[in-house]
Design goal:
single chain; Aspartate Aminotransferase, domain 2; alpha/beta; seven-stranded mixed beta sheet; four-stranded antiparallel beta sheet; Aspartate Aminotransferase, domain 1
Length: about 350
């Protein structure tokens, strides 16, 4: 059985749209896309009169090198949100198929499923927010086509061990795709699930340049998967998903000096995360500071709503996640700059200096 047998048959049979840029390889007189011949140039010297390459070779090669996979295993799009949407649309028939999620977790999995008309199976995390693989596998029915795992998990910050991911993918071979969302993996200091791609053709890994590479506004998200899966997703990818300025920003962030600087910044942020967590333990009214492998910290409060409003009143914005399952009384706090932490801790009435 091919992994593509899990996908919607109408997507497998779809003749993808052939964009003008796909036809223009090697051409120098471009008269096929009804573009303006006069370049409108923005800051940085980027001409915007021509449509961009749907999957720029230089960017795909740089992302493949960054994540340790072959270029044929890489698809770039507009953030992880688009990647999630593409996967749901490629594998789930409206009214027939379903996705499995493990709440509390990232909300876009269920939103994308609902938009597609796919059912949503919820298998909650354990009391300590760890993933219960036995409970998850026991609930997988034939209509489940995608299983979403977030590691480190948003909003709880904990990891799913690679051995657990590998076991789930192995158990679901020829049954479902396992999608591992690693938006925050750079802050965890652990190997990526991409190291498992050679063993499991039903595994896909989501990565992003938004967090560790500080490119949230550029919206560069990545799917890493078996080449057949990437080819399938390219059939339904919009014709020109990557604006030229965003591609240029990503390429600048993936030069050797830029990647070295990113590693330094990530190490500094991890240290700041641990210092902030220690400082938060001195704050009156906080029951608990949860351990985190991401670039945020979750705290459990006496009254999350009141504390959220109090912080907002002095210009400090955190995320109120108390409505998530099993997260009553919780706020999620992003790790910021030293001055951000100083303002936060002062507003909270901490008894120690900011990190």
């Amino acid at each position: 059985m091919s992994v593509l047998d899990l996908a919607r048959p109408e997507i497998r049979a779809l003749q993808p749209y052939s964009s003008a840029r796909m036809e223009a390889s090697g051409g120098s007189v471009l008269l096929n896309a009804n573009e303006s011949p006069w370049p409108a140039v923005m800051a940085g010297g980027i001409a915007l009169n021509r449509y961009p390459d749907p999957q720029p070779h230089e960017l795909i090669d740089a992302l493949a090198a960054l994540y340790g996979v072959a270029p044929a295993q890489v698809l770039a799009g507009r953030g992880s949100d688009e990647a999630i949407d593409l996967l749901v649309r490629a594998f789930c028939r409206a009214g027939q198929d379903a996705v499995a999620i493990c709440p509390p977790t990232f909300g876009m999995y269920s939103v994308s499923a609902a938009i597609q008309g796919a059912a949503i199976l919820e298998v909650p995390l354990a009391g300590d927010f760890s993933l219960d693989a036995d409970a998850l596998l026991a609930r997988i029915e034939p209509n489940i086509k995608l299983v979403f795992l977030c590691s480190p998990n948003n909003p709880t910050g904990n990891l799913v061990p690679l051995a657990t991911i590998s076991r789930i993918a192995a158990e679901l071979t020829e049954r479902a795709m396992v999608i591992v969302d690693e938006a925050y993996i750079e802050f965890a200091g652990t190997p990526s699930a991409a190291t498992l791609l050679g063993r499991h053709d039903n595994l896909a890994v989501l990565r992003t340049l938004s967090k560790a590479h500080a490119l949230a506004a550029a919206r560069i998200g990545v799917v890493l998967a078996h080449a057949q899966v990437i080819g399938l997703l390219r059939r339904i990818l919009p014709a020109y998903p990557l604006p030229a300025p965003c591609v240029e920003a990503a390429l600048n962030a993936l030069t050797p000096p830029a990647k070295a600087a990113t590693r330094v910044r990530v190490a500094g942020l991890v240290a700041a995360r641990d210092q902030l967590a220690a400082a938060l333990k001195s704050v009156p009214g906080l029951h608990d500071v949860l351990p985190s492998a991401a670039n945020f910290i979750v705290v459990r409060c006496v009254d999350a709503d009141a504390l959220y409003r109090r912080l907002l009143s002095v210009g400090v914005v955190v995320r109120n996640v108390s409505h998530y399952p099993s997260m009553g009384g919780c706020l999620r706090i992003s790790v910021g700059s030293p001055s951000d932490h100083a303002r936060l801790l002062a507003a909270l009435g901490a008894r120690v200096e900011a990190a």
